[in-house]
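Why do we bother with a discrete structure alphabet at all? Because it lets us treat a fold like text: something you can write down, compare, and reason about line by line. To make this less abstract, here is a complete entry for UDP-N-acetylenolpyruvoylglucosamine reductase. Read it the way you would read a sentence in a foreign language you are learning: slowly, and without expecting to understand everything at once.
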Amino acid sequence: MVFVIQNQLYEKLTQITAKENIFIDEYLKNHTYTRLGGKADFYVTPESYEEVQGIVRLANEERVPFTLLGNGSNLIVKDGGIRGIVMNLNKLNKITTEDHIIVAQSGARIIDVSREALKERLSGLEFACGIPGTVGGALYMNAGAYGGEIKDVLTSAVVMDKQGEIITLPAEDLDLSYRKSNIPDKGYIVLEAEFSLKSGKYEEIKAIMDDLTERRESKQPLEYPSCGSVFKRPPGYFAGKLIQDSNLQGTRIGGAEVSKKHAGFIVNIDHATAKEYIELIRHVQKTVKEKFGVTLEREVRIIGEDLDEEDK
């Protein structure tokens, strides 16, 4: 960004949110699970819905690119970073419970919502006890694990549209399906979600969560940075099995490696660049397609810009 324009935009942002919530030229690798990603021109962490609204409307008025970043668990940010304003809602993380209903703000971790459900002896979110994303991200992709999905328990969501208007939608209006919703197509920003759960016994709910946690920790390469499961499950197959049967485990490009522990994961084992990580994803897709005729569709999102040659 040209310095004068950048300075003007900074001043306008300070009229919306506190200075300590605004970061200039912030490395996004500090905010992604893969530990990949170049700089954001502006990285902002608003503390209220009104501040989110103000930032969205400012971006519209100034015609500045705007990107919403969750907690970066299912995301690859390219090495050139992201232009304009990148907003993170991790300070909007309130969770409240009344009877069998839990309302959670977008920036709350879905793991923490599942723990709140356990505390309140509510069943239905056990599957989410190991999902590292936020509530907003969980709705964005209809996150799921071990046979459960967000759409099974979501009743409604409060979202903000591209113009900064806040609207409440029933769950069915989000078109939730396997690892998909209409949130990206509509340009919605999730502000909060309402989950309807069932009464249960604390010991039984905890036993399920403990079992799922043990299964996750024993099978997944959690000791390395990664984006989690890279690919969606192809109809009739398992992505990890196809990759394993293609003899791709341990394959490396630079610092990125197809996990030897779980073939569905690509891990950052030695200061990988996003370019290396993405090249390895494409190599896996190409190899599996050639060997089995199956197209692996990415579950992980890739955003941002490539690094310019002169910046290397």
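What the structure line is telling us, in plain words: Residues 274-292 form the longest helix (19 residues). The domain at 95-204 is CATH 3.30.465.10 (Uridine Diphospho-n-acetylenolpyruvylglucosamine Reductase; domain 3).
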